[in-house]
């Protein structure tokens, strides 16, 4: 199975009729003109919606790519133990980890070692990486 990452494209439309007090904003598919979002009261709300959709779109394709082409990597680094113990993100960390003294080791699915380190860095501040 071959997955090609496609870009997510949409146009923001401002709509107001004469009998409307305030305009509404919504997103459309520029190829078809189909409305693809709810109505928003401000362009800022519409932009937040688009940013969220774009984030989910990119995360989904990254997950598919990791699942199809990735492998498990073991990465380890030096951490501040106090930060690890008190970290709220540590409870949400989806990776298998082992902490001994101030060295933490992770097993995780990634595209490459650099991707593995980047993903770990989203949860912990690694002071120094070890090979």
Descriptive notes:
There is one protein chain. The chain is of the alpha+beta class. The protein contains four helices and six strands; from the N terminus they run ββαβααββαβ. It has helices spanning 43-69, 81-86, 88-92, 113-121, and strands at 11-15, 24-28, 71-78, 96-100, 103-110, 128-130. A hairpin with an 8-residue loop joins strand 1 and strand 2. The longest helix has 27 residues, at 43-69. The model has no long low-confidence stretch (mean pLDDT 86).
Strand order, sheet with most strands: 4-5-3-6
Query: How many β-strand runs?
Result: 6
Kindly report the average pLDDT value. 86
Instruction: Report the uncertain regions.
Output: none
Order of helices and strands: EEHEHHEEHE
Proportion of strand residues: 25-35%
> What is the distance, rounded to the nearest whole angstrom, between the alpha carbons of the first and last residues?
33 Å
Oligomer: single chain
* Helix fraction by DSSP (H/I, runs of at least 4): 25-40%
- Alpha plus pi helix count: 4
Largest sheet: 4 strands, antiparallel
Topology, element by element:
Blueprint: E1 11-15, E2 24-28, H1 43-69, E3 71-78, H2 81-86, H3 88-92, E4 96-100, E5 103-110, H4 113-121, E6 128-130
Antiparallel strand pairs: 1-2, 3-5, 3-6, 4-5
